[in-house]
Design brief:
Elements lengths: L2 H13 L7 E8 L22 E2 L4 E8 L4 E7 L6 H10 L6 E6 L23 H19 L3 E11 L6 E3 L9 E9 L4 E8 L12 E2 L2 H14 L2 E6 L6 E3 L13 H21 L8 E11 L3 H8 L26 E11 L2 E5 L3 E2 L1 H5 L32 H4 L4 E5 L8 E2 L33 H12 L3
Parallel strand pairs: 2-10, 4-5, 9-11, 15-17, 16-18
Antiparallel strand pairs: 1-3, 1-6, 3-4, 6-8, 7-12, 8-9, 13-14, 14-15
Bound molecules: zinc ion.
Length: 469
């Protein structure tokens, strides 16, 4: 954000008649499946991880906002990801209650498989159709109930550098951490909090792969702490956490990483407390502007593992050709299936939020190839057997350069989960054995959960068009 631009915006706001009134309502709903009554396959690490119980519930957290002309529902789900066909079903069920619905997953690795690729075996879906059907209907009912509860609100927002050590680390070279911590608080005329929105980039995986108790991981603790201190409903949105921003837990006496519920609580509370302290000092925003722009686009899927999952109907989504006609014929390198997705930009008071349909690498958000966001670590590890060729890295503009607001959020896994969004210069797969041994030496795991090398460029171009100044 440029200072001059803010001053000009404030002057313009003062010269205008009173801005349109913003109204809001929010609620939180338990969407946890019951592992004592149904088989629940947990998502995010390997297959065949069956839930044995519930430590803390996973939730659908909804904020409905309206300026009298447009009503937008923001939905934050404690799920690993929700693909666009399911988002479209939620939208269809919400018709009449909201003009637009934004659905983002926190990328929780301790909840049920919501995408179908973490079942008992690689050939069986982990997604329970009965649970997803009732969850979609429950979220829509939650949105509809809020439409009758809207009340006037004021807004205040913050953005500052969040903590890194013992909170977040980058496990893939180059080390680039987007540690922007963003918050937005909506309060009614009496000063009571209606909702608080938090935005931070770090995989929700403090608890890691051994845990079999359903949990919302650190974002659940973060939201609980925000609600404890501020009241109202808290929503958490994950930022540019791809490539790969992971928790930096403390260690036990033997030197092992602490993968405990207490550690998830420490991380969640630590982030929440910093946000509350900053919000309490923030001034009210003058302009309650609300707008949402989206752009649909097609992306080629070049990942042979995804092709197999599509063939097995594990990844249940329509495929197209490059012109958007239904996909036909055999998949070959010249006849790839394309998927339909979308990018978006939401403006809400002091916030401008880029809605990214997957796991954006942080370097696509901030650059940082010169080490300015490595926080004391080498940008590329000395022992990396296949170091990134940083001279080929894109020079920008990066996604944050395209945004221009006092609070610039990047909301990942928004309206889709396409997997990792890898910068093209750094995209390497083992072309000799792309299915069985898909990644070459060095840090290239993320490519195996990515549509392909064209994804990042096409998405960044779409944002460039949406955010043209
Ligand atoms: Zn991930």
């Amino acid at each position: 954000m440029k200072r001059g631009a803010l001053a000009a915006a404030l002057l313009a706001a003062c010269a205008l008649p009173a801005a349109a009134e913003l109204r809001a309502a929010a609620s939180s709903l338990d969407i946890t499946p019951d592992p004592s009554k149904e088989t629940v396959w947990m998502a995010g690490f390997g297959m065949n991880r069956r839930a044995t119980g519930v430590h803390d519930p996973i939730r659908s957290r909804v904020l409905l906002v309206s300026d009298g002309k447009t009503t937008v529902a923001l939905v934050a789900l404690d799920l690993v990801g929700l693909m666009r066909p399911h988002v479209e079903r939620i939208r269809a069920e919400c018709r009449g209650a909201a003009d637009a619905v934004v659905v983002a997953s926190t990328h929780n690795h301790e909840g049920p498989d919501a995408m179908g690729i973490w079942g008992r075996t690689p050939f069986e879906s982990g997604l329970d159709p009965a649970w997803i059907d009732r969850t979609i209907l429950a979220i829509a009912a939650q949105v509809k109930a809020l439409a009758g509860a809207l009340r006037p609100v004021g807004l205040r927002g913050v953005q500052f550098e969040g903590p890194v050590k013992e909170f977040v680390r980058d496990s893939r070279d180059p080390v680039v951490i987007d540690n922007a911590l963003c918050g937005l608080q909506l309060r009614d005329a009496g000063g009571a909090t209606v909702a608080t929105v938090a935005n931070w980039a770090c995989h929700p995986e403090v608890l890691w792969s051994e845990n079999a108790q359903i949990s919302a991981d650190y974002p659940g603790c973060l939201c609980a702490r925000l609600e404890e201190r501020l009241g109202g409903t808290a929503l958490f949105f994950s930022g540019a956490l791809g490539g790969l921003l992971a928790p930096d837990p403390r260690h036990d006496e033997a030197g092992g990483k602490l993968r405990t519920f207490a550690e998830a609580e420490r991380v969640g509370r630590g982030i929440a407390d910093r946000l509350v302290d900053a919000l309490e000092k923030a001034a009210d925003a003058k302009d309650p502007a609300l707008s949402l722009r989206t752009k649909e686009l097609l992306l080629p899927c070049a990942n042979p593992r995804f092709h197999i999952a599509m063939g097995l109907k594990l990844l249940a989504r329509e495929t197209f050709d490059a012109e958007g006609r239904p996909f036909t014929g055999k998949i070959t390198s010249k006849n790839l299936p394309w998927v339909k997705t979308e990018v978006g930009v939401l403006a809400l008071g002091p916030v401008q939020a880029a809605l990214v349909p997957g796991e954006l690498f942080p370097e696509l958000a901030v650059g940082g190839y010169d080490g300015t966001r490595a926080f004391g670590k080498p940008v590329v590890k000395k022992e990396n057997p296949n170091p990134q060729k940083l001279a080929n890295a894109p020079k920008g503009p990066y996604l944050r350069d395209l945004l221009d607001a006092p609070v610039e959020m990047i909301i990942g896994l928004a309206n889709d989960e396409l997997g990792y969004i890898v910068p093209e210069y750094d995209f390497e797969v083992n072309s000799k054995s792309p299915t069985l041994e898909p990644h070459p030496p060095g840090d290239h795991y993320e490519e195996t959960n990515s549509l392909g090398r064209e994804t990042a460029g096409r998405l960044m171009d779409a944002f460039g068009e949406l955010l043209k100044k």
